[in-house]
Design a protein that fits this description.
five-stranded parallel beta sheet; alpha/beta; about 170 residues; about 30% helix; 6 helices
Length: about 170
């Protein structure tokens, strides 16, 4: 669609926003279109009012796009705390709880870890984070569409995922 069809384009955009919201249990006004998952996570990292002494908790098995934004906060005095051993054994709630304290601002996890396939109980993690005054940020790219996500019911504060390529198989005669 060209500029002459801008109104139609905006109408279609809002339809897509509504479908995305329905898909993840959000409200349409909570959906933002970003370039990719990494961009969405970087917006969260850059958008919070960090204070020196704050910390972010994640695992040592995270994909780089869910590590680098938090590492970049070091210059602002934000500590990155990694739950170790996540590539060998999926971390439990206690493993996360041992690293979360009153200065934890964010718990950042992938819904499904790219390197291990471990799938986290997002509701349990959000309950843990919220009980300590922290927020939950989820990289959902590995599991969205395969495993249901409902940001409202699961207590997810930030969720980032981009579209996945679609492979079409066509039968040739």
């Amino acid at each position: 669609l060209g500029a002459a069809e801008y109104g139609k384009w905006m109408e279609d955009l809002e339809k897509v926003r509504g479908l995305c919201a329905w898909f993840v249990g959000a409200r349409p006004e909570e959906i933002a279109f970003v370039r990719n998952t990494s961009h969405g996570l970087s917006l969260v990292a850059g958008g919070l009012d960090w204070k020196s002494g704050d910390n972010v908790v994640t695992t040592d098995a995270e994909y780089p796009s869910n590590i680098y934004p938090w590492m970049m906060l070091k210059d602002r005095g934000v500590e990155l705390r990694l739950v170790p051993g996540a590539r060998k054994k999926p971390p439990g709630l206690d493993d996360f709880a041992r690293r979360i304290d009153s200065r934890t601002r964010l718990l950042a996890v992938s819904h499904v870890e790219f390197s291990t396939g471990c799938r986290f109980d997002l509701k349990a993690l959000s309950d843990l984070a919220h009980s300590k005054g922290a927020l939950l940020c989820v990289d959902a790219i590995q599991g969205l569409g395969v495993h249901p996500v409902d940001v409202e019911r699961q207590g997810i504060d930030f969720l980032s995922a981009d579209e996945k390529p679609v492979m079409i198989f066509q039968t040739y005669r």
